[in-house]
Amino acid sequence: MNQFQIEGSRTYYLKINRMEDFHIQATNELGNRIPPEIWKPYLYFLDKESFYGLTARIDGLDLLLTPAEFVRLFQQVPHHYVSFLGQRAEDEAWLKLAGKVADSLNDPDLWNHVSVDGEDILFDSAYGDPEIQAFLTDTIQHQLRQKGLTPAQLPFIQHFVQHAGWHGLPAAEDYVLAAQLSEPDTDAFWSFKVVLRSKRGTVYWSPSKRRADQPIENVLPEKWKAHSQEIRQQQTLLLSLCPSVENYDESRLFHAEWTDAQVLEFLRNDAEILQAFGIEVSIPSWLKAVQESKVRVRANIHSPVKKASVVGLDQIVRFDWQFSLNGHELSMQDFQQLVAENKEFIRIGNEWVRVDSNLLMQLRKMIEEADDAEWTIKDMLFQNVPEIMINEEAEEDDDPLVEFHLNKSLRLLLDKLLDKRDLPETPIPPNLLTELRPYQKTGFDYLVFMRQEGFGLCLADDMGLGKTVQLIAYLLHVHGKNPEQPSLIICPTSVLGNWQKELERFAPDLKVVTHYGSTRPKEGEFLHFLNDEKPDVVLSTYGIASSDAVEIQAVHWTSITLDEAQNIKNMYTKQSRTIRKFKGDHHIALTGTPIENRLSELWSIFDFINKGYLYRIKQFQENFMIPIERDDSEEHKEKLRKRIQPFLLRRTKKDPDLQLNLPEKLEQLEYCPLTPEQAALYEGLVQDTVQKMETLTGFEKKGLVLKMLSKLKQLCNHPALYLKEPYSSAEEILPRSQKLERIVTLAGEIAERGEQCLIFTQYIGMGHLLQQAINELYGHEVPFLTGSMPKNQRDSLVASFQAGEFPIFILSLKAGGTGLNLTAATHVLHADRWWNPAVENQATDRAYRIGQTQFVHVHKFVTIGTIEEKIDSLLTQKQSMSEQFIQSSQWMTELSDHELKELFSYNL
């Protein structure tokens, strides 16, 4: 009897298929397939790490598990009346293997047999068979990813994991061991120590300098003396995670004096590893933000012509330069001295800051160039400004390095160029630490005006036009009047960090808190927390807002903003219904795609911003959805446009009035034929599925159509994806798919020309094929950003790509389609077509957005004669409707049998 079988219990028989992940299906005693939603709770009922199954991934009738999840779940104590058995011998073998791997992971001797070669984790031949080694490799890699670490860092953590496991230092009774870095006092050296604090306290303790070199047991306070041996052992574990620390005396509490270079090395490597294992790292508060410290340059721009009645674009201007460092004003002489000293850390007033000496040199060069050249207004506003002056980082940094302030005559000229709307002008909050673009000022004026008039609104600017900064300016204006309640921003988890950073940089005067994570205050504690902290802005996510609905509904917010508001597009989901009930003085929706597929999505957003304005859903269906989606009525389209126009501000990158000066983008279809192998598989799959469709009901047919669509698209990419075959070699896999071969070749050519590209795909397997083939043929390590990647690793990869550290970046279409700025790319490759043009365009907009100064070439790969080519023509139709905020509901599952046969058929 398998260990997961309990006598007299309900039994589920598992079919286990191993691909990149494990795909698991279950049947009951009668052989009927059971949806994962029914049996999943029994598998996860003790699994805290997944929040008891809340983060589980389901694909149709398959439960998807990573190797680490598979081991974790099938080594736990089984449910008291539900058993899991394998359907086949190979399934039973997988379950037994999970137990063996679990035993190995818990074996301290394991780490004596592990080594790392580059990014590869290796085991010596003395430890386990190859199958267990492969399984262990996958599991360890997953554990590293979960902590935001890489295999290259494994040697630094092996000793710790061997003796303490993956969860951090063993919990102590009455103390917490931590690492403390302190800034220089009177000399040039930093202090790094291992310190202690009481569990209930916040003050760190360390021995005085006079006693610092005495043994641990001699210097500890009485309350901790009994734990001296335990503290010594925990210190050894803690320091084992610090590659910077070598050859220390284990008998005393560690302390050392470090130079600037040693501190930077610690911050770049050791601190990340310590924090990954939950160890407290205390560093000066200014040092946490020191990487953001920059010299700011303000250029007051004047016309030397004092009595001219007209100021023209060709007028030569002069600059009055002003400098500041972390808010401290510097003279030109101070600035020049700062450049000359070339120091890493300097003290300004009572605070320390870190400066980038290379950046200072660039600034000095720019200032000299501006003073020597005879710049006109036209030069300044448009193309001839040096790159550093227009600050390519602005979209990601949103805190301009160089600010330009025009005098009155130049400002009047600029106003004429911008053609503003007739909205009441609202002064920009003086504590907004950036300049709003003119159209953003229009958006800000619009937000304030609509609040004053008591109307909600949807700010529906294209991706990348700066909806965030317009809202932050609005929040500064509103909270400058000291309202009693905070404002709430609800956003996807993936952009929570972006909101935090941009609020810090644009509006440090706003007090911002996040309502997120397992330690967030709940129930009555939430109101107490708001009363005590008195924040201006509360940041939360859609998932948390839905699960903590009672707490959030108990507050009448000053304003409620939904970022990426399309997340409530499905009016029937619990999340959408819950969030639409939240109450605030002003409701705002931010989205670049107010409609992705159906008009009901627009209704859902308007039901949040102005409840009842678009009637009840039944009346909206009768008045608009049916005549527009069924009958394509132009009269009703125009009627709806006029109705929503006052409450929806939409600007696109193609709008010439915005004067974005964006480069053009070229969208090009790259047609690829199927190989004979693909064609034979394609026709076989179509014939088999069309026969099945004739025997199915409407609901069953829809499910089969969607499943077949996914299979066909995978087959168009590569037969190995459809057949679920493992990677062999580039020499073997490339001839089997001309599309894969073309993408790999094109990406390699782009990289060899010194350019950068993004590759988007919907399929994890396709991403890995591309990764491996490009690496094998061109030697490039190609990162792959997926939805399961931890936020800190994701942010690090984005920053590295923007810095030009690698030329090719593969992204899952959904994971990489929103919330990222990747303007370093000059090429965007869509490996497979998404049936929703809005989603595909969002992905392209990662590169084609403000901050992009280069031509962007978009390559969309289509296999000839297949569903991809037919979808492309339908996408063109859908795109034209999307631009009108209208999209037809007649799509894949709504087509007739004849239309489906025509769509799926393979036509050479």
TrEMBL record:
Its EC number is 3.6.4.-. It comes from Planococcus shenhongbingii. Residues 739-901 form the Helicase C-terminal domain. One of its GO terms (molecular function) is helicase activity. SMART domains: DEXDc, HELICc. The keyword Nucleotide-binding applies. It is an enzyme of class 3 (hydrolase). InterPro entries: DUF3670, Helicase_ATP-bd, Helicase_C-like, P-loop_NTPase, SNF2-like_sf, SNF2/RAD54-like_C, SNF2_N. Residues 448-612 form the Helicase ATP-binding domain. Keywords: ATP-binding, Helicase, Hydrolase, Nucleotide-binding. This is DEAD/DEAH box helicase. It comes from the Bacteria.
